[in-house]
Amino acid sequence: MSVLDLARAEIRAMQPYSSARMEASGGKVFLNANESAWAPVGDDGLGCNRYPEPQPAALIEALATLYGVRREQLLVGRGSDEAIDLLVRAFCRAGEDAILIQPPTFGMYAVCAKIQNAGVIEVGLNADATLDVDAVLAAVTPAVKLVFICTPNNPTGQLVPRESIERLAEALAGRALLIVDEAYVEFAEVASVSDLIDRYENLAVLRTLSKAWALAGARIGSLLANAEVIALLRRIMPPYPLPLPCVHAALLGLSGWGQANAREHLATIRAERTRLSKALMQLPGVREVLPSHANFLAVRFDDAGAAYQRLLAAGVLVRDVRRYPNLGDALRITIGTPAENEQMLTALKSSVMAGQNVVEGSA
User: What's the pLDDT score for residue 45?
Assistant: First the structure.
């Protein structure tokens, strides 16, 4: 059985759109795509008057090297969100198929499924935010075509052990595609599971340059998967997904200088994560700081709503995650620069002191 047997039959059979860039290359006079012959103001040699390559060869090569996969096992698009959407559209029939997720987790899995009118089966994380593999496997029905695993998980920061992922991939073979979202893996100091793709044809991995590589504004995400899956998704992807300035920014970020810069910032974030976790636990009103392997901390408060408003009043924006299951008392705080982190701590300390003064004054 091929992994493509899990995909929608009509997608496998469709005739994909053929763009001008795909039909011809190597020319010197471009009169085939109805583009402007003149570069725009401020182009600086980028060539933005021409359509970009659908899958830029230089970027594919750089990312394949970075992630340790073959070029044909990589699809690059507009952040991880685009890959998630493509997977749901390719594998889930509207009104019939479903995905499986483990809340609290990244919200775009469910959003993309609902847009496609696919079902969403939820298997909640354990009370300590760990994954229950047995519960996940027990919940898989014939309708489930995609199982999403986020590690480190957003918004809790917990890791899913490699052995759990292997167990899921093996158990789901021929039944569903296992999608492992590693958007935050660089912060975790653990190896990616992308080396398992050759062993499990139903395993796919999501990666992004938005987090550790400081390119959230460029929107460069990758899907690493079986070459047949990649080829299928390329058939339904928009013809020109990557703007030239974004490709240029990504190649610069992946250069030797760019990688050295990223490593320096990663070291700072890991050190600050440890420092902030200890400092937050010493504050009155903080109940718990969840263990995190990402670039954020999920923090439980006695009154998370009040803490959020006090931080906001001080000009410090954090993420209110109280709407997520089992996080009704929590805020998610991104690790910033040491100076920004200190501002956040100062704001929380000041709000606590102000509250104590009010109580003492009323007494």
Answer: 87
